[in-house]
Amino acid sequence: MMIEIKNLRKDYTMEMVEVQALRGVDLHIPVNEYVAIMGPSGSGKSTLMNILGCLDTPTEGQYFLNSVDVTLLNDKELSAIRNKNIGFVFQSFNLLPRMSALQNVELPLMYAGVEKNKRKEIAIQSLEKVGLSDRIHHKPAELSGGQRQRVSIARALVNNPGIILADEPTGALDSKNGEEIMQIFGKLHREGHTIIVITHEQDIAAHCRRIIYLKDGIIHSDTLTKSNPINL
Amino acid sequence: MDFKENINIAALSIIDHKFRSFLTMLGIIFGTASVITMVSIGEGAKIQAIAKYKDMGISNIIIRDKDMTETDLEQVRMKFSQGLSLRDAQVIGEIIPGVVDVAPQTEKKIDSRFGDKSAKATLIGITPSILKILNYQIAKGIFINNDHYNRQLKVCFLGASVSHDLFGYENPVGQSVKLDDQWFEVVGVMQTKSLFTETVGELAARDLNSDIYIPLSTFTKRIAKENRFSSELKQLTVKLENSDRLEQSAAVIRSILNRHHFNNNDFSIIIPFELLKQEEKETRIYNLLLASIAAISLLVGGIGIMNIMLASVLERTSEIGIRRAIGASKVDIMNQFATEAVVMSVTGGIMGVLLGITLSLVISFGTAIHTSLTLYSIFIAFGFSVLVGITFGYLPARKAAELKPVESIRY
């Protein structure tokens, strides 16, 4: 999955005030990149992530995902991309509280049209990958923060997407659990996934291969890290 | 993501919120139940009305001597009218085409007595042919026959409730009862007839089960007139071959009798078939009215569903956002919520059908109101409740589908 963004702009009105969240972003993220997007609040990093994740559409500019201009796709096609090509991991986990861990992980498979009896098998494999095969029938409320985040990573992985989009994945976790989550991302990166992490924590970003620093809606800096030199 | 799966999701969500879902369905339940109950009450009334007029014979014309005070009667007699008479019966039978039979009858209020028991009754003098004309059903013994009639015998045929009042569960046939001051032998008992609860023209509301029938010949010979001006007969029942020309025949009868009674207007003519048609028309309007009132409650039930569904969409904004993020399209979300509304209204509809059937049975057995369940009312009520669910589920479902994933996921 290769991401190519050209002159991306996003304006929106918030309480009668025009906000220019992104003011011309050009970005290229090759396959199997491990990148952190940083920046102060209001820098446009969440807006960028929403557009990258096909949850939102840009006001202007082009976004090619594997050479397909996603700004031209309809709702159904965008939903299919979110389902199969992108896995989301959120700060607040965003699991459905009434469903067990297993059922939560099965959900993307349901929208992908996978047969009911095959879903369980695939979902369990995904939970095993994040080291949570023993608590699959627990509801989110019965799991710790770190475990919940691992369930949500399992959910993001279940359709084997090229891209994992993580929005402050360690923001609600203590440093030990945060470290474990980053270990999982490292492993996924080595397995070939493209990983994009949005964070404002320097030591989280240090796990990545590349750091993009956003400020006032434009890319301020785009550097490779020394601490995690993985060759492509 | 197939239909069955959507139903499963909807069912789970409803079960998760049992009490709230039940409250939501309540409107549909009562709406459906009231449509079924109301229609069954209306149908019951219709069937009763039809039965009543069928008892009077749908190819019959009934001519009644008007009830008048002695003074009024004297006036009429002074103007040469003799009131309803056997001669009228004879003339009608001869002149009107298509007349099968003319059955004359007289009436008088009397006290009946057996042992220490007594009952108020209407004594009716009849000819044996009335049995067929008015379709009387015999429960025990025999009806008054030609032999009784010709020999002017003191025999009587009891209505069901008189028989019960005087004899309880004993068999009255062969026993002697005292009617006013004379003894009559019981030859038979009539089956219970439906109550005649409203006055139709000169046919006053009365309990046909408290009638006692004796031969007209015996009546004329033995029973004293109510007063010196009383007419010879109280009623003529004219049976025609069919019900095609009832109104024309009735008009001819009216003009003949007017002439014979010197325009004293001392009789009235009742055509049961016409009354039946009128009643059917009235009950149809009445039923429609009942059903519409019930349908309004179904509509209110639908608004209830919409209300709760809108609240549920708001409450589940974040769930919608999550589902959208992991791959649900607008159509998927729309289907999810619409299915939930439909499942709720179908469930409510089924429960309402059961409640409606129960209610109309309870009303039928527990009260004097007769009900009649009809398949069409069940289908209409159920179909309407599903329609209401789809209609009022659409808007919230649409609202859910149109939520922006970006905004809803952070809700």
Q: Unreliable runs of chain B, pLDDT <50, ≥5 residues?
A: none
N- to C-terminal distance of chain B: 26 Å
By CATH, the superfamily of chain A comes out as P-loop containing nucleotide triphosphate hydrolases
SSE sequence of chain A, one letter per element: EEEHEEHEHHHEHEHEE
Low-confidence stretches of chain A: none
Spatial order of the strands forming the largest sheet of chain A: 6-7-8-3-9-10
- Second-tier CATH architecture of chain A: 3-Layer(aba) Sandwich
| Number of H- or I-type helical stretches of chain A | 7
**Portion of residues within helices of chain B:** 55-70%
> What is the CATH class designation of chain A?
Alpha Beta
Globular, elongated, flat, extended or rod-shaped: what is the shape of chain A?
globular
Please report the total strand number of chain B as a whole number.
10
Total count of helical runs of at least 4 residues of chain B: 14
Largest interface between protein chains, with number of residues from each side: A-B, 26 and 22 residues
Overall average residue pLDDT of chain A:
90
Report Rg of chain A: 17 Å
How many separate structural domains of chain B?
Answer: 2
From the alpha carbons, calculate the radius of gyration of chain B and give it in angstroms: 33 Å
